[in-house]
């Protein structure tokens, strides 16, 4: 049996876009709203963390946007990329800056794969 909170969560989560495409910001935001209703304490903690990172003035908004985009790209999180791309546009980040940030992300991720390959080879060499 479902309660009204589960029905609300399900209804909001059903705002998906056409099959095979990015859900879109409105749908992602609706899903996040539903999660906030279902788990308010956890969502409150998340929002407190976000506010704390924005209160730290060591990085300006443009730099934070570029880092967020690069991390989202590295993790393959399309919806998160879309959210942070919107924020980067609002912060005045240029397409060249975005390209440079995600290119660096690709390079770092490739470096991680390279060192993991080296670790596999080392583990193999220690065997038998």
From TrEMBL:
Residues 45-122 form the Carboxymuconolactone decarboxylase-like domain. GO terms for molecular function: peroxiredoxin activity. Residues 1-20 are annotated as: Disordered. InterPro entries: AhpD-like, CMD-like. This is Carboxymuconolactone decarboxylase family protein. It comes from Formicincola oecophyllae.
């Amino acid at each position: 049996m479902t309660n009204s909170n589960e029905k609300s969560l399900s209804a909001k989560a059903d705002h998906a876009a056409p099959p095979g495409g990015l859900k879109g910001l409105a749908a992602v935001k609706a899903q996040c709203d539903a999660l906030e209703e279902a788990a308010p304490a956890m969502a409150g903690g998340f929002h407190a963390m976000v506010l704390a990172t924005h209160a730290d003035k060591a990085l300006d908004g443009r730099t934070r946007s570029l880092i967020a985009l690069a991390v989202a790209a590295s993790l393959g999180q399309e919806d998160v990329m879309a959210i942070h791309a919107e924020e980067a546009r609002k912060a005045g980040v240029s397409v060249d800056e975005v390209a440079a940030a995600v290119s660096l992300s690709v390079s770092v991720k490739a470096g991680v794969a390279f060192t993991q390959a080296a670790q596999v080879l080392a583990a193999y060499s220690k065997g038998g």
